[in-house]
Amino acid sequence: MAVAEPYADADALGADLAVLSASLRSHGSGALAAGRLARLQRAVQVFGFHLAPIDLRQNSDVHVRTVAELLALAGRCADYAALPEAARVALLTEELASTRPLRSPYLDYSEETRSELAIFDAARELRARHGAAAIVNCIISKTDGVSDMLELALLLKESGLLRPGPKPQADVNLVPLFETIEDLQRSAQTMDALFRLPGYRSLVAARGDEQEVMLGYSDSNKDGGFLTSGWELYKAEIALVEVCRAHGVRLRLFHGRGGSVGRGGGPSYHAILAQPPGAVSGQIRLTEQGEVISAKYGTPETGRRNLEVLLAATLEASLARQEGEAAAVDQFQAVMDDLSQRAFQAYRALVYETPGFATYFQQSTVVSEIAALNIGSRPAARKSSQRIEDLRAIPGCSAGRSAASCCRAGTASARRWKAICRRTRMVWSACAACARRGRSSPACCRTWTWCWPRPTWPSPRATPIW
């Protein structure tokens, strides 16, 4: 008996199983086909050979250092990191168009560069062994310019995951992650500049004219506060929809939401319906992490219910948009811009400009204990420092919430807030916890250090309770 070749992919196995099922049904054995064979067919269809797809994700600073070393040792550019953005884009565009590799097995690279290249090599081998669906997306954290995307493309090329030429093709999607307030404000401009590059536009066309963009809720919240984060995310989505529509690209937004409100969490149904017009066009991606996984997917019944809610919200947001909705939002934009700017200034003044705040946060919260727990996929901080900028958003938000600190605004502040709400037709309400304690805070949150900036107007009771 000849030795059979292994299946090239899960689709080939699925095709053979379909033949077996059809044969059983045609010979009166439908009961057999509907049993274990049907379940196996469903498993192959859902899980393939890879069980679940994974995303590659790395900080753009690491890519800069890796690409800089590749270019320097290849004699192409002595100091890539010192180049301005326009020069970086020109150099990377030229390298992506060339079939000549920069990487050489005879050169001695740093440990970080070897590690990064090894990750991409492993991704290529994983796709070859378990199928293309095993790894579909490469995400660049802290994307702040066109060069960040092109650096990833160059690393994919050096690892055999991108093939240059007149019509370049990439095996994976290149996904920018806009996280800080400034990056969100420039996100549409960055994507517009990318789509104007013929080489990158060809890559998008080869992937079905579809571009995924990830939005960071936790880091934008840590960077600018709860109100500014939510408003800038909303405006960024509107701008990205317009840019992609202008270039004939279908946009899929990936929402990096967390479980708590400070990390973009909350009821998924209402969150999806709250997306701006055009942001949900039949598809949406969002993260489910931490305590949310057990709460929403702990049993088959709750998991099924949650998936039904997500599907219903996606369909409703895509098909049932009311006419004039965008115009209704526009009339409040000036007020929201003003509120956001005031909140941003107050938040930055407290968290980033108050002397000793970083020390206080380290000593008064459990952020150090969270960092010591062996339950996270990444370190609690990007660098070994106590700066708020280097602290990752999820440990920071969790530590702030565990501190049970709360900002109080006195009755004078509450009256002023209600007056603003009346003028803008916004709804004002105090949270239940404050109502029970007799507080008149317009918005009280246990994660005040991340979620609620102090009021910018004078108030005798506007000091936090430690």
Number of strands: 10
| CATH C-level class of the largest domain | Alpha Beta
Fraction in beta strands? 5-15%
Supply the CATH architecture of the largest domain.
Alpha-Beta Barrel
User: Would you tell me the overall average pLDDT?
Assistant: 83
Into how many domains do the coordinates divide?
Answer: 3
- The chain-level structural class is alpha/beta
Strand arrangement across the biggest beta sheet: 1-2-5-6-7-8
Q: How many distinct helices?
A: 21
How would a crystallographer describe the biggest sheet? 6 strands, parallel
Distance between the ends: 78 Å
Using the alpha-carbon principal axes, give the shape: globular
Which radius of gyration do the C-alpha atoms yield? Answer: 25 Å
- Poorly predicted runs are 406-414, 423-466
> What portion of residues is helical?
40-55%
CATH topology of the largest domain: TIM Barrel
Description:
With 466 residues, the chain is α/β, with parallel strands linked by helices. It contains 21 helices and ten strands. A six-stranded parallel sheet has the order 1-2-5-6-7-8.
In short:
With 466 residues, the chain is α/β, with parallel strands linked by helices.
Task: Summarize this structure as a short list of keywords or feature phrases.
disordered C terminus; single chain; 21 helices; 466 residues; TIM Barrel; 6-stranded parallel sheet
